[in-house]
Amino acid sequence: MSDDAVNPEEVRHVAGLARIDLEDSEVDRFAEQFADILAAFETLDEVPEVDRDADLANVMRPDEEHDCLETDRALENAPESEDGYFKGPNVS
């Protein structure tokens, strides 16, 4: 890909969409960087597609029902509790 693939007007347009003010020296630098990025995408386009069926398997275990903890046991290790509930720090 040639360096002029991305022109300064396009860079200014993208910068405007992103609400970024660019100096003239930055526009030239970004044009070069955008060209490099586009060249990398062109390289990715050259990667051949793979045609195969995906061997997918469900790796999740089924839900199992268990008795829940008693309130006192659940709050045993809580740093603070109040009226049978976990108590966290105040958020301001």
Keywords, separated by commas or semicolons:
92 residues, mainly alpha, Histone, subunit A, 3 helices, 2 strands
Helix-strand layout with pairing:
Layout: H1 8-17, H2 24-45, H3 71-74, E1 81-82, E2 85-86
Antiparallel strand pairs: 1-2
Helix pairs in contact: 1-2
Description:
By secondary structure, the protein is mainly alpha-helical. The chain has a domain at 3-45: Histone, subunit A (Orthogonal Bundle), CATH 1.10.20. It has 3 helices and 2 strands, in the order H-H-H-E-E. It has helices at 8-17, 24-45, 71-74; strands at residues 81-82, 85-86. Helix 1 (8-17) packs across helix 2. It is flat. It starts with 7 loop residues before the first helix and ends in a 6-residue tail after the last strand. The model has no long low-confidence stretch (mean pLDDT 87).
Question: What is the H/E string?
Answer: HHHEE
Largest sheet: 2 strands, antiparallel
CATH fold-level name of the domain at 3-45: Histone, subunit A
CATH architecture of the domain at 3-45: Orthogonal Bundle
**End-to-end distance, in Å?**
54 Å
Question: Helix- and strand-based class?
Answer: mainly alpha
- Radius of gyration, in Å, reads 29 Å
Per DSSP, the total helix count is 3
Enzyme class: ligase
Subunit structure: Heterotrimer of A, B and C subunits.
Pfam families: GatC
InterPro entries: Asp/Glu-ADT_sf_sub_c, GatC
